Amino acid sequence: MRIVTLIVLWCCLALPAFGEPLQTIPEAKLRGVVQDFLLKKSQGINAEVKVKKAVVPAELKLPAGTVTYEVIAPERWEGWGNTSLAVVIRVDDQVKRNLTVPVEVEALTDMVIANRTLERGEVVQSSDVSVAKRDLAKVGGRFCRDVSEVVGLQVKSAIGGNSPMRRDYLERVPLIKSGQMVTIVAENAVVRITASGRAKTSGAAGDLIAVLNLSSQKEIAARVVDSSTVQVDF
Fold this sequence. Notes:
This protein is mainly beta. It has 3 domains: about 20-105; about 110-170, Type Iii Antifreeze Protein Isoform Hplc 12, CATH 3.90.1210; about 180-230, Roll (SH3 type barrels).
């Protein structure tokens, strides 16, 4: 009995009462409502936005009255790629339709791309990269906009040719490599002490790495100064 009641209630919501004056909402109107929402959603995105798909009904029959629309996007949707919107349609403030509208939004923006395949361990040169427009939906938001962000960095995970350069695939070039002999320096305004050590981890300038003090045989944390020197607090 409960199931029958629910079906009857849904039908009453979905269809106008018999003999009730009707109005027709054309596809163009529904599409315009969705597109306006999507363009407002994408305001502030530094990209060229285009609505590639919005699947709406050909037309809707609604009771006569003042029609209002409420478009709701998934909470974590950023405004590009594929998703489904909820479109709530009211007539004189009463809900008459609740539509699900699949959409696809293209958002093109400038990204640094690899001109060729870059293998792990390579240092990025200016000739290896260029700037081109790519769809934000294809990179998950992780990309570089300016070549200065990537030139001089080392590739830590291979990057295919014509692919956007992701910062998490790059790292600063290590000045000191694991296993290398280094000079450990501890100094202040009065005294300077040095000792021999062996790097236990690799690091770029300014990085904190693990170093084995060969005199004490103790492992310490030291900051990379140059290609042969690390410094500890004194």
